[in-house]
């Protein structure tokens, strides 16, 4: 395979580390003793995680701990959607293991959690790791969304851990995958399998965060990639002056990606799902707001604009939220009868007659494509596959009919032509920005430090991210601390609580203060491509979201 010039140069990039992780292994000491509690539903979470619950927060500092130099055998899994920097987590883990003891071994389980249950694995040698340093993608071992949930899957995981003499498994994943990691840690502890489980916070969606996890990796690079593209489209819109561009952006539930891109690019409209839910806006009301901007700009001769639509919007519109949750429950309850249907009209008719009258009416009012997209298979964690629901097209069709009404009433005399886009997969495997390259490498090495320190059931935590990397703090947060009980697949399950956009948080407030102006004027901002080499103020900047959140504390 021939290498691009950037790929060659990126192999040589040396990621920056927190000072404590630059020490030799025996000088890294973990500490912490305050018991912790789950974010909600404490009793129910504690009853499920009998061995894991209440562990203290851990932080690393300079000290003395000869046990850190033990030779270890560790397995690693990439789980869920790709996020830039995954390869660097593995490189950091590998380098940590070898720093601790040159005889340590890293085993990669292929294709996600299913690789562990099936023992589909490869030893990750220095030569393999070197081919993936500082590159995007998860192709070093592949990823998958298999959920380890049946007693057989847990037993198989334990058998593999024992047979391979694993000291630990590292699960690099989002909220669902790390929920699974916590369940695995609990199973191993309950069954005296001497294998620790450590999670690493991955997801471009940015919704796996809290006080101790300031960002999930991949969010930085993905939002910078989308912002470059949105800026380019804004410039095209302002040049051609003939299209309204409707851009759906990934981020399954939370609107962090859309909000960050709005802060970067200053589009005319950016919908924020959490606000739509809070204000209980109907889809018609959301579309009316977009029309207000279109009408106001048309009155100034600007028949062009850019609208950002978060991928998960539909699940936050109250009437659709109820519809989707009823569909989830009935598809789970009638799975067998539904699976026997082999034609789309029969599927639509089947669910329509099971919905209550009002929901059936709403479902019946939707274009057939959207009806089908709403009943597509859920992912293994019970989530609707929102990346496959064309909300941006649904919005355009409602906006078009509203504009023709306004035209009839003499309230609008502009021209409306639209283009729709979906940016998601374009950003998930980009070369990690310097921030993600450094952060991921640190998270990986920190995961090794947690394992060598004897911890299990923790999420790798690297904090102080607004500061230069040498000042970052390394440690671990108990997975159970992030849990609550939610309804999935028609039943109540312990899950890591998603961090949604906070409407009183600094990033949303910064956006809210400006959006009225952006809706009418052309205030576009063009971030350009990610820069990897050059001054730190261009190359090493974290997201606006992170900067605003940290400034607000
Ligand atoms: P994770 O939560 O697994 O990181 O998923 C991120 C994501 O990119 C979402 O933004 C998107 O909705 C989903 O994955 C798409 O899933 P798939 O890759 O299965 O199409």
Commentary on this structure:
Helices cover 43% and strands 15% of the residues. By secondary structure, it is an alpha/beta fold. It has three domains: 5-218 and 432-488, 3-Layer(aba) Sandwich (Rossmann fold); 224-308 and 402-430 and 518-553, Phosphofructokinase domain (Rossmann fold); 312-389, Arc Repressor Mutant, subunit A (Orthogonal Bundle). Strands 1, 2, 3, 4, 5, 6, 7, 8, 13 and 14 form a ten-stranded mixed β-sheet that branches. Helix 8 links the parallel strand 7 (168-173) and strand 8. Helix 4 crosses helix 20, helix 10 crosses helix 21 and helix 15 (344-354) packs antiparallel against helix 16 (357-364). The longest helix is centred in the middle third of the chain and has 22 residues, at 219-240. The radius of gyration is 24 Å and the shape is globular. The structure holds 1,6-di-O-phosphono-beta-D-fructofuranose.
**Molecules bound to protein:** 1,6-di-O-phosphono-beta-D-fructofuranose
Query: Which runs of at least 5 residues are low in confidence (pLDDT < 50)?
Result: none
Number of domains: 3
- How would you describe the shape? globular
Strand content: 5-15%
CATH fold-level label of the largest domain: Rossmann fold
Quickly count the helices: 24
Radius of gyration: 24 Å
Q: What level of helicity do the residues show?
A: 40-55%
Structural key phrases:
553 residues, alpha/beta, Rossmann fold, Arc Repressor Mutant, subunit A, 3 domains, 10-stranded mixed beta sheet, 4-stranded parallel beta sheet, 15% strand, binds 1,6-di-O-phosphono-beta-D-fructofuranose
